[in-house]
Design goal:
Low-confidence stretches: none
CATH topology of the largest domain: Arc Repressor Mutant, subunit A
Helix content: over 70%
Number of strands: 2
CATH architecture of the largest domain: Orthogonal Bundle
Strand content: 5-15%
Radius of gyration: 25 Å
CATH class of the largest domain: Mainly Alpha
Strand order of the largest sheet: 1-2
Order of helices and strands: EEHHHHH
Mean pLDDT: 79
Largest sheet: 2 strands, antiparallel
Number of domains: 2
Shape: elongated
């Protein structure tokens, strides 16, 4: 997705045209444009029903709060789902593999430090760490999570 787009931004009497990548457009400008269109449609619908600009502004503020809460709820649900998959992945490991994963990946302890603390060979632990990592990657890929 390395295509370029020309976007026009207007504010009052100012107008600026800029070139952005497709990724920038999808990430920043498209959601902004959707929000502006939604606000415009909402304002028009409110005016048709006889509401004033002041009541529209109050309604918009409440609508934005609800939208933020909905996004937080969506993010929270997604994080819970991912944490559940992670728990299943860790449960799928042997106890020794799980300990390596928790120390090296979870607590970010170096393999060298973990070898020193546990009294095991560093090279053996490094080999096992790589096997655990591959096992976890395979587990996530099977569940449609790209890692």
């Amino acid at each position: 997705m390395s295509g370029k787009r020309i976007v026009t931004i207007r504010s009052g009497n100012e107008e600026v045209r800029m070139e952005v990548t497709e990724e920038e457009y999808q990430r920043y400008f498209r959601p902004w444009w959707r929000q502006k269109k939604r606000e415009q449609r909402n304002r028009e619908a409110m005016e048709e029903k006889g509401y004033t600009e002041e009541s529209y502004e109050e309604w918009k503020e409440n609508d934005m709060r609800n939208e933020l809460f909905a996004e937080d709820t969506e993010e929270l649900a997604e994080k819970r789902m991912l944490l559940g998959v992670l728990k299943d992945a860790l449960d799928n490991l042997l106890p020794e593999e799980r300990e390596i994963a928790e120390k090296v990946f979870g607590e970010e302890m170096s393999v060298y430090e973990y070898a020193r603390v546990s009294g095991k060979n560093r090279r053996t632990l490094d080999f096992r760490k790589n096997k655990v990592l591959e096992k976890l990657r395979r587990f996530f890929r099977e569940r449609g999570i790209d890692v």
